[in-house]
Fold this sequence. Notes:
Elements: H1 14-28, H2 41-57, H3 63-91, H4 95-100, E1 120-124, E2 131-135, E3 144-150, E4 161-165, E5 169-172, E6 179-187, H5 190-195, E7 204-208
Helix pairs in contact: 1-2, 2-3
Amino acid sequence: MKQKARTSSERIKDNELTNYAQHIVSNMTTNPIYPDPKPTLGVIQNLITLYSAALLKTVDGNKVDTANKNAARVDLTDALSSLANYVNLTAGNDLVKLQSSGLDLTSLPTPVGILDAPTLKMHFGNNPGEAGYEISSDPKATEYLILYTTLPAPENDADWHSKVVSGTKGVLTNLGHKKEHIFKAAATSPEANKLNLYNFSDPIEQYVP
Length: 209
């Protein structure tokens, strides 16, 4: 995932928005990387002026003044969002160019790595050929991988049946009934999926009626 200019200014506080927008205008003025800003910097500057005036009136103002400030904020942040889209299209993935715009950039995701092995519990299903599972939850997991097979189990995990699930509780169906099975589970992450490397729970052997 590459960094981009943030297209949302919602997290910026009211009393910080003017300085933030003004910083962007200053950075992009005569910036050769952005020869044709959309909207123009003149439009952005005018919206900054209108917002600043509306914000000032709320100091000792009434509900109408607050509503006017909120409307002016929407106009300004919508314009900044459009400007951020222009910056992203113009700069592409060039970090130096993106930074030169003065816009805040998105954060890079923190790598999760290979997650620890979860705890797996199995129980009988309600119907023949079914088995219920319960996997201990990991907040960093994107999904969970369950491997299962009849006994005797193949040595290679690739020869086991697999199922990727989003929840920690559920039922496996269409298993061979009246047979001994073995099950194990792992928490997945982008890194684990890329490397095809997982820490599996202790395997559980269970008869499937």
